[in-house]
Design brief:
- Pfam families: PTR2.
- This protein is mainly alpha-helical.
- It folds into 3 domains: about 240 residues, MFS general substrate transporter like domains (Growth Hormone, Chain: A), CATH 1.20.1250; about 70 residues, no CATH class; about 200 residues, Up-down Bundle (Growth Hormone, Chain: A), CATH 1.20.1250.20.
- The protein is about 65% helix and about 5% strand.
- The protein contains 19 helices and 6 strands.
- The strands form 2 sheets. A 4-stranded mixed beta sheet has the order 1-3-4-2.
- Strand 3 and strand 4 form a beta hairpin.
- Helix 4 packs antiparallel against helix 8, helix 7 runs antiparallel to helix 14 and helix 12 packs antiparallel against helix 19.
- It is globular, with a radius of gyration of 25 Å.
- The protein starts with a strand and ends with a helix.
């Protein structure tokens, strides 16, 4: 019943593989880690910036370092949380394998959140609490990178690799497709982490306000402990891909040798190769007879590679990995626009007329709440209908649509900010006081940005996983986090300009960058599908 990928066009309909038990377990464990991360980190700003409340009217807090220092610490934590996935993926693909890395990272996360919880004990001096927070935030960020970067690829590894023809309930022949199976897994994982985001970011502020910080951080520790138990108990259920030893050093040496040879060939007047890696020194057979070749085989049955030379398969894999990674730089622009939902749009909400029970920071929950509804609709009805009609957009086209949507959201935010500045009673210097513009107008950008995530971010994960060579899937997939880290630096650099009355210009610039990014992305990447 096996079917090679080349024959897919003969199938009347492609459908995803049913999600395997192993994929479900990994996604549930990954969502528990995200619940721990979002639930615990959402209160860091108050915990670090505000002093302990004296009266019930005071905002919650603990360390009292003030807003600026708290913002700097939290932004550093966020940056580390999006940088560590790259290093975690390298350790996974080269040394430990995916399971060992995610399990050990989850256990490390339990330790990190336990330390944070200990810092909230009221009898502990604030200097000791601050030191504990610094250490624990570093641990939590590294643990988060170790789990969040590996879980999507690890869950996708559990999808059967071959496409198989089967009969559906109407006795029609369909093709159960590996690529659609991984797409389905990524959609479900994205749904799971957004459910976790809603539960964490709405639930733990109530624990913070009405119970204690100890309960918040203990909740986070318990959530990631649950993830650790899932990874540990069900280890034998998973498909394990062995790590590739010396992967990153070999990549570096191969690129270095190829560039050196390319320069030498140019100096010698030889024609340039089509790809610079084609200049890498390729190993040839070391023997002249089958008997000698058999004697020189390594333990895994392959021939030894002389120092300074590389197998053709390795060079081809590296070319494929580098080619795949080229989709990541434009995502910095996307994340720059997206990250407005965690900074400037929250500030914008504080300058709008709203019900007394609605805090301005609760508006950001419209993003994950929208995703909880949209992901099942898109994955179960819209995308299957488009595939049936033969109109399903490719990953690159879906990413382009997502770029266009996030541009629309920023244009909406720009117009809305202009309306706020034109409205009484505070006009273009509202501070944190509301002007006469309803906060419900802000729902639009959050819904549009949520839809753009389904098109751009899920498609980017899918593209990276399906196009990366097997030996480098975790490393390539983890680079999805790098544009967000770089965008966080840009957001941090723009913080001094993110104030009244400059916000219309700021949103306008981000809208223009997103619009140019949309056009540029499609022009330069449309042939990659």
């Amino acid at each position: 019943m096996s079917e090679p990928a080349s024959s897919r066009i003969e199938s009347p309909l492609r459908i995803p593989y049913p999600v395997t038990k192993a994929s479900w377990i990994i996604m549930i464990a990954g969502s528990l880690e995200r619940l721990s991360f979002f639930g615990g980190s959402i209160v860091f700003q108050n915990y670090i910036g505000n002093p302990a409340p004296i009266s019930p009217q005071d905002p919650p807090g603990r360390l009292g370092l003030a807003q600026l220092r708290a913002t700097a610490i939290v932004q550093t934590f966020t940056f580390l949380a999006y940088i560590f996935p790259v290093f975690a993926a390298i350790l996974s693909d080269q040394y430990f394998g995916k399971w060992r890395l995610v399990f050990s990272s989850a256990v490390l996360g339990v330790c990190g959140w336990a330390i944070v919880a200990a810092t909230s004990i009221e009898s502990l001096p604030k200097t000791a609490s601050l030191a504990g927070v610094a250490v624990s935030m570093f641990i939590v960020a590294s643990a988060s990178g170790g789990v969040a970067s590996i879980v999507p690829a690890f869950a996708a590894d559990q999808v059967p690799t071959e496409s198989v023809k089967v009969l559906d309930k109407d006795k029609k022949q369909v093709l159960m497709d590996h690529d659609l199976g991984t797409q389905h897994v990524f959609h479900l994982y994205y749904l799971g982490i957004n459910v976790a985001a809603v539960a964490g970011t709405i639930g733990t502020p109530f624990l913070e306000k009405y119970i204690s910080y100890w309960s918040v951080f203990t909740f986070s520790a318990a959530s990631i402990l649950g993830a650790s138990l899932f990874f540990g108990i069900f280890r034998g259920t998973f498909i394990h891909s062995p790590p590739t030893k010396n992967l990153i050093p070999d990549c570096y040496r191969c690129i270095k040798a190829a560039l050196r040879n390319r320069r030498r060939f140019k100096d010698e007047g030889r024609p340039a190769k089509h790809h610079f890696l084609d200049s890498a020194p390729i190993a040839v057979s070391l023997s002249s007879s089958p008997a000698e070749e058999e004697r020189t085989q390594t333990a895994d049955g392959s021939l030894p590679i002389p120092p300074g030379e590389f197998s053709q398969d390795f060079v081809d894999d590296l070319k494929r990995a580098l080619h795949t990674c080229l989709i990541f730089p434009p995502l910095v622009v996307f994340w720059l626009a997206f990250n407005q939902t965690t900074h400037n749009l929250i500030t914008q909400a504080s300058t709008m007329r709203r019900p007394h029970w609605l805090n301005n920071d609760l508006m950001s929950n419209f993003n994950p709440i929208t995703l909880i509804f949209l992901v099942p609709v898109m994955d179960s009805w819209v995308f299957p209908w488009l595939r049936q009609k033969g109109r399903m957009p490719s990953p690159i086209k879906r990413m382009t649509i997502g770029f266009g949507l996030v541009t629309l959201a920023m244009v909406w935010a720009t117009i809305l900010q202009k309306a706020i500045y034109l409205s009484p009673p505070h006009f273009d210097h509202p501070g944190n006081l509301p002007n006469n513009v309803s906060i419900w107008w802000q729902v639009g950008p959050y819904i549009i940005i949520a839809l753009s995530e389904i098109f751009t971010l899920v498609a980017a994960i899918e593209y990276a996983y399906n196009h990366a060579p097997k030996s480098m899937k975790a490393v390539v997939s983890s680079l999805n986090a790098l544009p967000n880290a770089l965008a966080s630096l840009v957001v941090y650099a723009l913080l001094p300009a993110s104030k009244d009355p400059n916000l219309v210009v700021l949103y306008g610039i981000i809208s223009a960058l997103s619009g140019v990014g949309t056009i540029g992305f499609y022009v330069f990447y449309r042939e990659r599908d």
